[in-house]
Amino acid sequence: MAKKPKSVLEESKEIQLAVELIQFGARLQLLESEISLSRDRLINLYKELRGESPPKGMLPFSVDWFLTWKPNIHSSLFLGIYRQLVEHTDASGIQGIIKAYKLYLEQIPPDEGEEPILSLTRAWTLIRFLNSFMLTVTQCEICGGEFVVQPYAQHHFVCGLCHVPNRAGKTRKVAVATRIISVA
Known about the structure:
With 184 residues, the chain is mainly α.
């Protein structure tokens, strides 16, 4: 049976979606999963938009990243935005993820020249992990906020905002800035 050719309008919509995803830094695997354009066309589009080949390698496939202190806060914020959009608008699927990601970036814009803590690809992966029950959401016992957790870690949960880890904020950038100030 012959495959029905795509209409020019359908293909145009797919290209526009691919452009939007690439502009947000989506990895090639995400593009291939969500868009029916050929791999070669997606690579060429990526090169044209970004001026470089798409990054090589596998997508991160570990729930652990979403559970560490800062990524958990960002993932939980994104997820709250996403869930509100899906529940109260007609947004769904990849369009829902894109709209929620835009709102997430409006709330927590990255520092100039820096990448956001939560990339679009990680946001997409988060939704996939939640849909496959590899992750879930639970409420913090102290503030009542909802946070991303592993399914078996739902009891007596205290979030990273109510119980900040000792090493939080002690990044290399902070250490370098402290050394510069102390030398001056």
